[in-house]
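User: Could you go from structure to sequence for me? I need the amino acid at each position, not a summary. Structure tokens:
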């Protein structure tokens, strides 16, 4: 949901940085930030956050996102949150419809002995981006809870995977509870009495209406977006070697079984999608005469050039070299035809 990035846009402004050039540099159209149906590239968002982290001296800058969000930034989900009868019901809605907000993280709820744990799955491999995104999402999440349940709400504990930073005071000051670094998971544990207490802002009728809207949005997203999202992950991962459905499912914050089911609903299979993505990438790369066949083989995740040649012959009916030669001949003929007679 592009509107979520309004939070990052405001966060950038808090540090006196001009957001326009930064967004343009990373290919993000700011005009989409007011469109709740628009989707932005997760790679572009990660690059934007990485750039921001390099420009801001405070590694805890993401905590300021709590001052930059608004329920409208989350679209209908933000309003459904406000209408939830308890924090638990609101968090369950957030878990159910989280995919509408972004594709690289997911939350799960777990009842622990000391309270309700809100666990964030963040599969990003870049530790700087992972830490910044976690701070942004946890700070907004806790502020959402405090908006509904009262500003005196404090978690029981916050757990973060990253090593303990030099300055922990910003985390203690914001969360107002013990913060454990180097933990096995990213989680906020909320007191059970607080999450199950009735909220004065709850409205079952409005929440039910918004639930129906969100369910329709999620169904549309599942049908139209899963193939594009898989393709994006395949583009990113193919050069690193063999790509598995389990890896891509984790990138998309879902199980392998769910990924296979959604691909089937979209009328394709995992193997068909991998093959089609490789084919499209190969045909595009082979057009560039500066790219060696061996380089293309590697970038498409083939272990041997002979395996790539067999696959290419299946796709194009000829070898990569012959296909490239035929393209060059066709271009030459087109140039000669276009030249004026002397």
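Assistant: Here is the amino acid at each position, in order:
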């Amino acid at each position: 949901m592009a509107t979520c990035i309004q939070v990052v846009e405001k966060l950038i402004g808090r540090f006196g940085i001009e957001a326009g050039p930064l967004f343009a540099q990373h290919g993000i159209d700011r005009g989409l930030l007011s469109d709740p149906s628009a989707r932005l590239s997760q790679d572009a968002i990660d690059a934007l956050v990485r750039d921001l982290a390099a420009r801001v001296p405070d590694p805890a800058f993401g905590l300021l996102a709590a001052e930059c969000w608004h329920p409208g930034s989350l679209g209908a989900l933000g309003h459904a949150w406000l209408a939830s009868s308890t924090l638990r019901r609101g968090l369950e809605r957030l878990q159910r419809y989280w995919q509408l907000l972004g594709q690289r993280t997911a939350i799960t709820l777990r009842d622990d002995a000391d309270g309700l744990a809100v666990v964030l799955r963040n599969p990003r491999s870049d530790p700087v981006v992972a830490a910044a995104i976690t701070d942004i999402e946890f700070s907004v999440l806790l502020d959402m809870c405090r908006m509904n349940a009262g500003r005196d709400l404090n978690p029981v504990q916050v757990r973060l995977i990253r090593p303990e930073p030099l300055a922990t005071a910003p985390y203690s000051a914001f969360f107002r509870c013990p913060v454990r670094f180097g933990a096995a998971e990213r989680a906020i544990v909320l007191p059970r009495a607080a999450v199950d207490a009735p909220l004065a802002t709850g409205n079952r009728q409005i929440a039910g209406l918004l639930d129906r809207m969100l369910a329709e949005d999620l169904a549309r997203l599942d049908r139209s977006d899963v193939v594009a999202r898989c393709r994006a992950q395949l583009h990113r991962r193919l050069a690193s070697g063999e790509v598995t459905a389990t890896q891509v499912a984790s990138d998309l914050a879902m199980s392998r079984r769910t990924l296979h089911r959604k691909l089937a609903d979209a009328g394709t299979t995992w193997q068909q999608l991998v093959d089609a993505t490789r084919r499209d990438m190969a045909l595009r790369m082979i057009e560039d005469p500066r790219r060696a066949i061996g380089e293309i083989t590697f970038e498409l995740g083939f272990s041997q050039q002979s395996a790539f040649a067999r696959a290419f012959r299946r796709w194009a009916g000829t070898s990569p070299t012959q296909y490239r030669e035929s393209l060059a001949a066709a271009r030459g003929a087109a140039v000669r035809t276009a030249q004026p007679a002397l």
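One structural detail worth keeping in mind: The CA atoms of residues 127 and 321 lie 41 Å apart.
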